[in-house]
Amino acid sequence: MPLTPDQQSQIDAERAAAASTRRPVSEGMEARLYTAHPVLDHGFVRVIDYMGGDAAIVQAARVSYGRGTRAVSDDAGLIRYLMRHWHSTPFEMCEAKFHVKLPIFVARQWIRHRTANVNEISARYSILDREFYIPAPEQLAAQARVNRQGRGDVLEGAEAQRVLDWLRDDATRAYDHYEAMLSQDGQQGLARELARMNLPANVYTQWYWKTDLHNLLGFLRLRADAHAQYEIRVYADVMAQITRDWVPAAWAAFEDYRMGGVQLSAKGVEVLKRRLRGEVVSQEDSGMSKGEWREFEGVWG
After folding, report:
1. Among 11, 58, 50, 2, residue whose Cα is nearest residue 30
2. How far apart are CA 128 and CA 189, in angstroms?
3. pLDDT per position as a tens digit, 29-49
4. Which of 224, 240, 241 is nearest to 232 (CA)?
5. Residue 114, annotated ligand binder?
6. pTM (predicted TM-score)
7. Is residue 88 pLDDT above 90, yes or no?
8. Strands 95-103 and 204-212: what pairing?
9. 192 is a catalytic site residue
10. Would the annotation count 75 as a binding residue?
């Protein structure tokens, strides 16, 4: 259960409150504010605050005063131009702050995206909840034979059940020992900052993660991709839906040029030109490695 009744009550109270403001708002993001979107078995993502929207991107790009007189279509065209030519600073004028509850091993992968402000719950001061991520059976997979960092065939039968039992039993036992070490019933009790070292990586943590739109889109380009690890991809998928509602024009350009687009190397461009001239080009005379050629053929045939 991602939220307790008390937490949901607090969110309802936050959403019921309203404040007048002179600053422009995004109606799509206003609708998302504070709502906790469930992820995995105990996790969630919710927007705590934000600044700017599509209009802020345009205003920054033109360094304009007020809204100006240009049509919405002109603004969308400018945003597409900025995205197409890899301009970054106008997109940095928008920011969002997320409250995320996620397994520790996902957080350690996520934190590699360093262009954000992060404040994580401290197990030096707080006792972490008895909540750990246990994968659904369909997510238990063997190591991929080709991709060293990916998954292969799904485990089945007795092997799958044995793995699930180990994951659940090991996490429960480690947390039991964590609580026992902290306990001051008949003993001094170990300091929280030391007891936490025994917790498994599938225990849930929480943080506030604030970033600008440019870096958020960079995160989503990698983590909302089909090749990303499932456990971080499901968080990115939820954040992608939120971002689409927040900045619809910027999201449409991002989907077109980043998520749906293809980047070619100079060798790739030359191979395409040779093919258009009617030449038959093989990997051996393309100048590409086997891995590059496999990716090239995956897109261009």
Report:
1. 50
2. 16
3. 999 999 999 999 999 999 999
4. 224
5. yes
6. 0.90
7. yes
8. antiparallel
9. no
10. no
